[in-house]
């Protein structure tokens, strides 16, 4: 649950902007999407390895975009 401390004189738009920023930083939407379906640990690990390989190739310059 996100709690926003707002002052009495604060505009509702500013409070809403703070809430949206806090919501995005907490990555709540991302967590909800990942919890919608179960992914096997082996599949998670495989995707992590493939991402790491891609990043390494990108850093070394072997991968041309």
- Strand portion, in percent? under 5%
DSSP helix fraction: 55-70%
**Number of domains as seen in the coordinates:** 1
Total beta-strand segments: 0
**Structural class estimated from helices and strands:** mainly alpha
Q: What is the overall pLDDT average?
A: 89
Rg over CA atoms, rounded to whole Å, is 19 Å
Q: How many strands, what sense, and barrel or not for the largest sheet?
A: none
Q: What is the chain-wise order of helices and strands?
A: HHH
User: Unreliable stretches, pLDDT < 50, 5 or more residues?
Assistant: none
Which outline best applies? Answer: elongated
The oligomeric status of these chains comes to single chain
Pfam family, one: Ribosomal_S21
InterPro entries: Ribosomal_bS21, Ribosomal_bS21_sf
Family: Belongs to the bacterial ribosomal protein bS21 family.
GO cellular component, one term: ribosome
Could you please describe the fold and organization of this structure?
This protein is mainly α and 65 residues long. The protein has one domain. The chain has helices at 12-26, 28-35, 41-60. The protein is elongated. The model has no long low-confidence stretch (mean pLDDT 89).
